[in-house]
Amino acid sequence: MKEQQANTLETATKKWGPEEKATWFCKQKIQRSYHNKVVTRLAPLRESFEVVQYGELIYAPNRYWLYIVKTRAWDNSKPTILITGGVHGYESSGIHGAIRFLEKEALNYSEKFNLVVAPCVSPWGYETINRWNPQAIDPNRSFFDASQSQESASLMKYIASLNTEITAHIDLHETTDSDNSEFRPALAARDAVQHTIWNIPDGFYLVGDSENPVHDFQRAIINSVKKVTHIAPPDNDGKIIGELLAQQGVVNYSCRKLGLCTGFTNGLYSTTTEVYPDSPKVTEQDCINAQVAAITGGLDYIINYHSGAE
Predict the structure, then answer these.
(1) Is 220 within 8 Å of 297 (Cβ atoms)?
(2) Contact of 42 with 119, CB cutoff 8 Å
(3) Are the CB atoms for 273 and 292 separated by under 8 Å?
(4) DSSP letters of 219-269?
(5) Alpha carbons 302 and 269: distance in angstroms, whole number
(6) Which residues does 108 contact at the CB level (< 8 Å), separation at least 6?
(7) Which of 112, 195, 220, 225 is deepest in the core (most CB within 10 A)?
(8) How many Å apart are CA 169 and CA 279, to the nearest integer?
(9) Domains of the chain, start order
(10) Three-state DSSP class for residue 177
(11) pLDDT (0 to 100) of residue 289
């Protein structure tokens, strides 16, 4: 675990306005290619899946197409599973874990489920290695009606168009050292409020929904991921990212209230994964494999315990 002394971050005297946000935006630089690293990997999937363009983001001078990958044998009698990656674009293993799942595992589950996979919800964030979008909005705090985040609004609109109940929603994320060194200080400055830094957990953990924690489902995912990588221990106060553990490797948030991605679908089984890619104990491939193990662990649980998937 990355030990940090809990302290209060210095804040600005007033919230950012358009000028401050524009100044922040001008400092962001493209560091990798969404097209080359993500979109090109979706093309071979068309042989087995339906690849749908569900939206478009125009952040001049760049344009980003948004893609969903779906199983072809759609059947409304099957449970529908939503898997999302790259809601925070800088969290790379979620994006590549979603694609690896499609490449290696998804067909094994297509008879049991309708699968809907959005590998990269925030492509500009992926390219600039950023948590926010160009308007300095956090997409993962923006999944609510009249959202100001185009990334969040586009996904919600498409999922609503399916006109189907989402049985499970697995949202793939990371917790990185830059959360404390860069993103939380930026949040404190943007909002002119105090934020404390926290210990960065060394290992994998989950964020469940405090309104519907589904403990056994979360436990099944933790047990699956254990086979791939280590689970984050709590800090000295028995917490992970400032929250008390619900069980090993699991904390709970009020997902809908906070506007988190898993909150908008009301899935019976929902969870947010958190991989720690800065750990000296893991490789990039370990992180991707952990995301895949989280998905398959959750799906295997639903097959065994949810009557609609039997």
Answers:
(1) yes
(2) yes
(3) no
(4) HHHHHHHHTTSPBPPP-TTSEETTEE-SBTTEEEE-HHHHT-GGGTT--SE
(5) 8
(6) none
(7) 225
(8) 26
(9) 18-309 (3.40.630.10)
(10) coil
(11) 98
Tally of CA atoms within 13 A in the half-sphere of 187 that contains its CB? 18
Question: 173: which 2 tokens?
Answer: 């994320």
pLDDT of res. 11: 56
What is the three-class DSSP state of 48?
coil
111 pLDDT more than 60: yes
Strand, coil or helix: what is 44? helix
Those residues whose C-beta lies under 8 Å from the C-beta of residue 73, and which sit 6 or more positions away, are 110, 111
- Give the separation between CA 290 and CA 282, rounded to whole angstroms: 10
- Phi/psi of residue 55, nearest 5 degrees: -175, 175
| Model pTM above 0.70 | yes
Whole-number Å distance between alpha carbons of 19 and 25: 10
Q: Enumerate the β-bridge partners of residue 56.
A: 65
The one-letter code for the residue type at 256 is: R
Peptide bond into 61 cis (omega under 30): yes
Largest pairwise CA distance in the chain: 57
* Bridging pattern class, strands 49-59 and 269-275: unpaired
